[in-house]
Amino acid sequence: MAKWSEIFSISEGFRLCFLGVKKGQVGWFKHAMAWVGLFGIVFVLCLYAVIVTPLGLLTGGYLWAREVKEYIFWGDMHEPKLSGDSKILKEEIDTVKEQNKELKEQIKEQIDELKEQMKLILHAVADKKS
């Protein structure tokens, strides 16, 4: 079970993983380097977010990627882009679905015809018995 001190701060295991060393190979200096490095990364990311977000809002997202601008300002408007193979497969699936519908209709017609023939046969058999 994790300790609360490891949940609310950078855990020792994560610092060791960040340094790329095993547990027994670490001294206080390497721990300090890990703390500085990890907090440096977090600081740079926060600073980037604090600077780029207002600039993007002021400039209409000029500094943002096109996908981010579309999602934030216009929402999810486009259908997913399909590759050439996916388009071909989609067309084939659509044609198979249409063929399947046609076959179902033909089968229903054949079933209705067979029902009528069975009624005629049953009436003929019933007439012969009486």
Question: What would a concise description of this structure say?
Answer:
The chain is built from 5 helices and no strands. It is elongated and about 110 Å long.
Averaging pLDDT over every residue, what do you get?
79
Low-confidence stretches: none
Taken as a percent bin, the fraction of beta residues is: under 5%
| Overall shape | elongated
Straight-line N-to-C gap:
87 Å
Helical element count? 5
Sheet with the most strands, sense and barrel status? none
Count of beta strands: 0
Specify the structural class: mainly alpha
Helix coverage percent? over 70%
The ordered H/E elements are: HHHHH
Radius of gyration: 35 Å
Describe the structure.
By secondary structure, the chain is an all-alpha fold. Helices cover 76% and strands 0% of the residues. The chain has helices at residues 4-8, 12-19, 28-58, 66-74, 84-129. α2 crosses α3. The longest helix is centred in the last third of the chain and has 46 residues, at 84-129. The chain starts with a helix and ends with a helix. The model has no long low-confidence stretch (mean pLDDT 79).
